[in-house]
């Protein structure tokens, strides 16, 4: 019985009110229930607001200004003409005016900024997808644990039924005083051991279903029927991991940043105007309040920045190279995981080949022991040991089958196949 208990405590991974629950449903529910997934909407809204702000660069900028000044000296004509009064300007001056500046061509900076915001959004969304995809492994682990527990309970129920039927015959022999009472007591003790094992399995099932309930946000009870459709594994399938999209998005973001740096070095063309009222106006020799305006076109160009932009672009290029190295390392690690998982699948398939033979042999031995027990040629302990050996063989077969299914599912997860 000790070996049996040890085996029962070795479920697939860790020891799950939907009536029927499939693994794919759990994947979908877990994704919908993941709190961080809502970050995608937040990032999208932030990007939309930033892009709206960027577009205001194409709109005119209007500022209102006003000032009053007193100055120690003013422009004057330093000659005197007979019979001519030379105009002079007051030392206290006032003006209120509006200035307008309209971008005609900003060197492509606004468009580059918009493209950069889209690239940042894609990078952030890709990061969220990486986090969400990691949920699949937790969901799969809990699902197969619950599935393994169910299969073990079925096997133990079969063993209990066999022992109960044998107990009836033994009790009949005890009543007829042809069999010792100790034989019946040993069978009753073994049935109690099975009940204890079932209690442990019930606890493991509750733990697994509660984990699934937390991950999926659905009420999954211990009575829920777990469904898993075995699918063939495509060992030659290309990787489609969300991390690959993240690396690509990060490098694209750096490219857009480099493009923006280039655009900031372009000349900018703009129009401007000013309209106001003050003393003096544009005629500096008129000492009266007057209205005025002026319009024009301007050009600005930072011709020389001491190679600052080039150095910043070199840093962006180095960061892109660093991401490439990270991507290559990630791909190498994934390939190693696939090799290990492939070997695990091959090992379990070989074990499955011998499991059925082992079960048949143990079943035949247990039947022979049952006959010997009735004829009192072996002890009850010998019979129980043979029944346990048969049960262990059946448990191994069921566990190996579930472990094989889980190994194949994990292989597909490593490939990135089960993405929503």
Give the arrangement of secondary structure elements.
Elements: H1 2-8, E1 20-22, H2 23-33, H3 39-55, E2 61-70, E3 92-105, H4 109-175, H5 181-216, E4 225-227, H6 242-264, E5 268-279, E6 290-300, H7 308-374, H8 380-415
Parallel strand pairs: 1-4
Antiparallel strand pairs: 2-3, 3-5, 5-6
Helix pairs in contact: 1-8, 2-4, 3-4, 4-5, 4-6, 4-8, 6-7, 7-8
Explain how this protein is built.
By secondary structure, this protein is α+β, with helices and mostly antiparallel strands. It has a single domain (2-66, 94-415), classed as Outer membrane efflux proteins (OEP), CATH 1.20.1600. The chain has eight helices and six strands. The protein has helices at residues 2-8, 23-33, 39-55, 109-175, 181-216, 242-264, 308-374, 380-415; strands spanning 20-22, 61-70, 92-105, 225-227, 268-279, 290-300. The strands form two sheets. It has a four-stranded antiparallel β-sheet, with no helix packed on it. The chain has a two-stranded parallel ribbon with strand order 1-4. The longest helix is centred in the middle third of the chain and has 67 residues, at 109-175. It is rod-shaped. It starts with a helix and ends in a 5-residue tail after the last helix. The relative contact order is 0.16. The model is unreliable at 1-17 (pLDDT under 50). It is found in: Cell outer membrane. It comes from Maribellus luteus. This is TolC family protein. Its main location: membrane. Residues 1-17 form the signal peptide.
